[in-house]
Amino acid sequence: MADIGIAHTDNSSNNIQAYMKNIAEVLDKLEDIQNKIGPLEFTNVEPGLRGSLLKLFQACCPLARNKTDDQLWEEHKRIRSLLLDEHIPKSSHIKNILSQRDRQESMEALFEWAAKKGAEISKVKFDLLDSNYFLVAKENIEPNSPFTTIPKKLMILADDFLKHETFNKLISKDPVLAAMPTVLLSYGLLMEFYSGHESEYWPYLESLPETYQNSCYYDIDEMLLLKGTSSFRDALYKWKGVVRQYAYFHLKIIEHSNSDQTELRELISHLNLHDRFSYEDYRWAAATVMSRSLSLQTTAGYSYSLSLIPILDLCNHSET
PANTHER family, per this entry (predicted)? Predict the structure, then answer.
């Protein structure tokens, strides 16, 4: 795929529809598997972190989309209580990093980095309104004419993590990551952030928001306000899905730590996943993908790759 010139960005609703279709298809498959094997039961769960993660994963596994709103709410409260378990990490490496940076400076560094890497961004600039950064035009732009061009080498593509020189040791053979591009991009993004300045995307990563205004970050009172609306069940499903993914990956990290593969153990040690990996950090990565990712058509013409595109993800989307 060559550099991509962007003429307009009114496809946000299509991206959301594609995302929800992907989620629905995966849920259908998982529900079918669960019906065949029966409910997960962990008896005599061991104490400590692994035991707490197993309980959390078990609580998130029942799909049962035919549950009533009240039943889903009781399940939601139980999962939240399990997240408060003393063994579940509460720290956030990402928050510690992003809360200390000057975001204005990080945005300036982002644009400088993108320009040096070949992005054509002379027609746009960033601006700030109500603590949110967004993209604005510096000149009149004709309808349907490109206003920026972003090289592929600046994009973070979900598919690229399957063949990543470093991360493929953690990713390539995982069935969940292979089946869900949104999860693959979230996990890969988190590994890139944990790489710090070693990541080729660090100027972009350091410019991202510290938190997001989507269901991943709703507290229990905000979630309750949705009850009785068409968004209630969707928000609960998305929130539970992120918690389930976190528990699954943390359990996999513990498993890999005891692997007989030296390279895998060394990678986990190098990224300091034992001390860093947490629900707060994974939630941030998942929320970033939910809020800022785009589906790009590949050169094959019929296949799409989920991606994060620096600069372009500052565009506001509107149906008006």
Answer: ACTIN-HISTIDINE N-METHYLTRANSFERASE, UNCHARACTERIZED PUTATIVE METHYLTRANSFERASE
> Residue 12: how many CB atoms within 10 A of its CB?
14
CB 140 within 8 A of CB 300: no
Residue 197: domain span: 46-100+151-314
Distance CA 25, CA 78 (A): 26
| Residue 286 lies inside a defined structural domain of this protein | yes
Stretch 290-302: mean pLDDT: 74
pLDDT tens digits for range 21-56 = 565 555 555 555 544 444 455 555 678 999 999 999
pLDDT greater than 50 at residue 8: no
Residue of 10, 7, 3, 22 lying closest to 306 (CA atoms): 22
Give a yes or no: residue 206 inside a domain: yes
Q: What is the largest CA-CA distance in the chain?
A: 67
Total number of domains constituting the chain: 1
CB 313 within 8 A of CB 155: no
User: Would 135 be classed as within a structural domain?
Assistant: no
308 bridge partner residues: 156
